[in-house]
């Protein structure tokens, strides 16, 4: 099993920045892709950004040019969020996958709240 713990959420004004961090523990040798999902109230969970062990990146269209995902392979993943907008408000979840693609994740963190005020 893999455990994921997020940190770095909070309240920020529109236009500001936050950096989310996620640390993996447990069977980290099984981790390949890592990424970030978010879920806003009343909306479906969506994949925001992800990175595979092969270095392939994925970004949702809504965050391209503003968010950057990076990682220390199999142990940590980060999400640098710049130029934040009120519509970025959501609970952000770290996710990890034993597969080296971003279509499916198996392990989840508990989530961290990001609130962007206008």
Structure notes:
The chain is mainly β and 118 residues long. It is built from no helices and eleven strands. It is globular. It has strands spanning 2-7, 10-13, 18-26, 34-39, 46-51, 57-59, 67-72, 76-81, 90-96, 107-108, 112-117. The strands form two sheets. Strands 2, 4, 5, 6, 9, 10 and 11 form a seven-stranded mixed sheet that branches. Strands 1-3-8-7 form a four-stranded antiparallel sheet, with no helix packed on it.
Q: TL;DR?
A:
By secondary structure, the chain is an all-beta fold. The protein is built from no helices and eleven strands.
What is the CA-atom radius of gyration, in angstroms? 13 Å
Coarse shape: globular
What's the β-strand tally? 11
What percentage of residues falls in helices of 4 or more residues?
under 10%
Q: Given the structure, what is the number of helices?
A: 0
**Which percent band covers the strand fraction?**
over 45%
Keywords:
mainly beta, seven-stranded mixed beta sheet, four-stranded antiparallel beta sheet, globular
Topology summary:
Blueprint: E1 2-7, E2 10-13, E3 18-26, E4 34-39, E5 46-51, E6 57-59, E7 67-72, E8 76-81, E9 90-96, E10 107-108, E11 112-117
Parallel strand pairs: 2-11
Antiparallel strand pairs: 1-3, 3-8, 4-5, 4-9, 5-6, 7-8, 9-10, 9-11
């Amino acid at each position: 099993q893999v455990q994921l713990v997020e940190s770095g959420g909070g309240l920020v004004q529109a236009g500001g920045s936050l950096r989310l961090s996620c640390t993996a523990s447990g069977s980290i040798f099984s981790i390949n892709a890592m990424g970030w999902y978010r879920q806003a109230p009343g909306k479906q969970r969506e994949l925001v950004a992800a990175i595979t062990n092969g270095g392939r990146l994925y970004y949702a269209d809504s965050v391209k040019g503003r968010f950057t995902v990076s990682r220390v392979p199999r142990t940590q993943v980060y999400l640098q969020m710049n130029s934040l907008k009120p519509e970025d408000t959501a609970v952000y979840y770290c996710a990890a996958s034993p597969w080296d693609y971003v279509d499916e994740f198996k392990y989840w963190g508990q989530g961290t709240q990001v609130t962007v005020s206008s």
